[in-house]
Each structure stands twice: as structure tokens, then as C-alpha cells.
Specification:
Chain lengths: 116, 112
């Protein structure tokens, strides 16, 4: 059973460029959340996708956008890159269905983005 | 805005010592999760606590959720070098739909 996978592993871009990161959720999961983790800090919630729609959004500008495909995989796009966008971008998947009051999230290994 | 404060930020101890990491907030969480993260990897879930006052044990690790569901602690007994890593607490607010609020993390180093 494959866990959450992300690609690419590492990425180097220059200021002003655009980047697309990809995530495949754990088998059986239908919800994908994206987090940004700056060096030495805890992850910050960017947004969450369920049923191909953005359901929740953290305090991130519109330069950050995403998409979820019918197979539940997801992309994170960042436009007009800034130096401060350099971080580890984490994807987490979970199953939104059921009657549980919480649904555990499983994280991928992340994509390390460096903006020069 | 919900915030989770973790303390201490850094901890360097000798093998065999005990330690406690704290996670505090002024907000109520419906669940609280503890993760461990290795360099260059994603966080790995250790435990989820959902009931106020709940205590869960995972080998030498003991997790506690505060009665008011605003705080949590992680206690490690007889720490080993393999426990070295970044420990993160993350809370899910009521009706947050899986959105997790993370603490800043506690970086633990256990020296042999």
C-alpha cells in the first residue's frame, strides 16, 4: 500500500518564476491538504481540496493556487515566486468520509523548493 | 487565529534521561496529534488524542491531553539516541475539517 507521494523531491527556481508541485494521496484517501514548512518552523496550512474543490484556505496570498483531479491527486501552483517562498512543501492526505470526529492525516516526504 | 505554543524549542539530553515537551493554546481543539519529523522527511504521526484528560502510551512515550482540550504533553522515559528528531504537536479545531494548526516544534537531541 503506497503512502503519500510527492514530486519533485527538490526544485530550484528564480524569483518571479512559477512552480507546480504534485501529490498523490494514500490509497483510499479523498482529501488532500498542503502545508508550507519554513526552515526551523512548524508547518503552516495553505489549503485543502476535497471533491475537486478548495474547501479551506489558510493565510496565504492568491499566488498560491491548487487543483485536485478526479483520481484525488493534487497540484500546488505558486506564481511570481519570492525568496520567502523557499520552504519544504508538504502534502497530507486523509479520508473525509465517515462519522469520526477527526480524520488522521498522513504526510508525504515533501518537496524542497529553493528560490534564488 | 488559533495558536499552539510548544516548549522547549530545543532540548539536548543524555541517553537515559527523561523529558517532557509541552504544547499549549488558549483555544479548544477537538483533537490533538503528535508527529515526529526527521530531516528532509515529512512528519510521521505518533498519536492522536481526542478526549479531555486522555492518556496514551506508546512504548516509552506517554501523551496526555488536557482536561479542557487546550493543552497536551509528551513525556519520554529513558530517552535513546533513536528518539532524536523534531517533535510537532498539531491541533484540529471543532469543525475545522482536518485543517491542522501546528506548534513550532521541539528539536530533541539525545546524546549517547
Amino acid at each position: 500500500d503506497a503512502g503519500v507521494t510527492q514530486s519533485p523531491t527538490h526544485l530550484i527556481k528564480t524569483r518571479g518564476q512559477q512552480v507546480t508541485l504534485r501529490c498523490s494521496p494514500k490509497s483510499g484517501h479523498d482529501t488532500v491538504s498542503w502545508y508550507q514548512q519554513a526552515l526551523g518552523q512548524g508547518p503552516q496550512f495553505i489549503f485543502q481540496y476535497y471533491e475537486e474543490e478548495e474547501r479551506q484556505r489558510g493565510n496565504f496570498p492568491d499566488r498560491f493556487s491548487g487543483h485536485q483531479f478526479p483520481n484525488y491527486s493534487s497540484e500546488l501552483n505558486v506564481n511570481a515566486l519570492l525568496l520567502g517562498d523557499s520552504a519544504l512543501y508538504l502534502c497530507a492526505s486523509s479520508w473525509r468520509g465517515g462519522f469520526s470526529s477527526y480524520n488522521e492525516q498522513f504526510f508525504g516526504p515533501g518537496t524542497r523548493l529553493t528560490v534564488l | 487565529t488559533q495558536l499552539l505554543e510548544q516548549s522547549p524549542q530545543f532540548l539536548s539530553i543524555q541517553e537515559g534521561e527523561n523529558l517532557t515537551v509541552y504544547c499549549n493554546s488558549s483555544s479548544v481543539f477537538s483533537s490533538l496529534q503528535w508527529y515526529r519529523q526527521e530531516p528532509g522527511e515529512g512528519p510521521v504521526l505518533l498519536v492522536t488524542v481526542v478526549t479531555g484528560g486522555e492518556v496514551k502510551k506508546l512504548k516509552r512515550l506517554t501523551f496526555q491531553f488536557g482536561d479542557a482540550r487546550k493543552d497536551s504533553s509528551l513525556h519520554i522515559t529513558a530517552a535513546q539516541p533513536g528518539d532524536t528528531g523534531l517533535y510537532l504537536c498539531a491541533g484540529e479545531a471543532n469543525n475545522a475539517g482536518n485543517m491542522l494548526t501546528f506548534g513550532g516544534g521541539t528539536r530533541l537531541m539525545v546524546k549517547p
